[in-house]
Write a structure and sequence with these properties.
The protein is an alpha/beta fold. 32% of the residues lie in helices and 16% in strands. Strands 1, 2, 3, 4, 5, 6, 17 and 18 form an 8-stranded mixed β-sheet that branches. Strands 7-16-8-9-12 form a 5-stranded parallel β-sheet, with helices on one face.
Amino acid sequence: MVATAAIQPAEAQAYDAIVIGAGFSGLYQLHKLRDELGLRVRVLDKAGGIGGTWYWNRYPGARCDSESYYYCYSFNKEIEQEWEWSERYPEHSEIRRYFDFVADRLDLRRDVQLSTEVTSARFDGARNLWLIETDAGERFEARFLVTAVGCLSTANVPKLPGLETFKGQWYHTGAWPLEGVDLAGKRVGQIGTGSTGIQAAPVLAEQAAHLTVFQRTANYSIPARNRPMTAEEIREIRASYPEIWRKARSGPNGHPFDIPTRSALSVSDAEREAIFEKAWEGGGLRFRASFNDILTNPAANDAASDFLRRKIREVVKDPEVAERLTPRDHGFATKRPPIDTAYFETFNRPNVLLVDLKAEPIVEATERGIRTSKREYELDVVVFATGFDALTGPLLALNIHGENGLPLSTAWAEGPRTYLGLQTPGFPNLFTITGPGSPSVLTNMPIAIEQHVDWITDCIRHMRQEGLERIEAKPDATESWGAHVNEAANATLLPMASSSWYLGANVPGKPRVFMPYAGGLARYAGICSEVARDGYRGFALR
């Protein structure tokens, strides 16, 4: 009998930094580390193309909810002046074309490795190196590991009893087939009415023979008022970019809005109604900026919420359907505030049925469709618009182990613990772009991403100049930051929405912790800058 030689693991490919994710974060981090610092960098992404979350989110109606002219990079004047958005709110395919434009302009593709899923990352404390393995058996090692996996990229598919028996097709909006789905003549069931479901329902209703919307939680929504960009608007925006970016960075949410100093309670009822009406007609997230206290003053929030409830009753013709669509369990914008194109109008269509799951919960999937506590709904296609395991899910999925083999899942067993959303104790040289504990999902993401990537790049530059090999968040600084994150959240009305994914409430068994930093992007960026100026206070460097 001839002995068979043991299969040897592939030799590790050595880099200065490995970046996981090829969306807004990963592409910019590659550019900064490679082109500014001269490092050897490799970007790994399981997708078959660049674009991050926008590679996967191709569901009908998928659009950005930040306006196109500032949902983009600000760091490159040529890209800023040459790219031309076609609509106020870009569709997913246009956003992917933008990524292609940026990647080609900066020659980024040569250092991006696609169709590569990271299966584990382990820190070798003896050598101060991260060891990364992929699903193809490739191995990489690097001084620095940067996660650029996004906050909303791990699909949350509910464990629906009997789903395996369903004879139709089912899809999650966050993993929509690249080739699309033909819904003509089909009976479609959509589960979920968050921001994704609100975008998808009107288009699904147009494409399908019949749409049944299974609503878990009634939601507010503002009309997007989407339209083509005019040539004059594009010229004015290009000329105004310095001021646009200044406003975006100096505000709380990364949007270039002028937020008034007035309270919703400082004006008469008639004037407040007129201000809300003007914002409603203007559309989009600017409605939230009608007054300065909608998210801090319960009475101001009630005023905004009541206005939006009245709008639902005005739009939806059937009073009973309108009431089921009206949120009563949370205030406006205490959960992610969606924007829409004809969402509430969709329920006036004869081929659309609303099922309130609070009145008749889903019991199981069957061969023919979905059974609630009251009846069975026959379906050909089920669409899960059930969101994501937000903020922590994408990071935990990487199977990260830090010092002495500590799993990140163990370190975060009671909720994420980070310092500035950038690092976690026990995980040296691991940087988490827009990680939990940073403003992230409460902001216009590209602006928050650029702030994080710039900080990480400056930190690595400092370490190289000083001959340092290791940086790690200190436990006491992390605890203090966690307390501050809670304090900032509790200064707002955000924690009051108990069903919010900001708290992890959409994922069974997930710790209920308010994850993003609610103190405002400008304030947060100032803290990060102070920490760096103070010799990276709160971090251990050696």
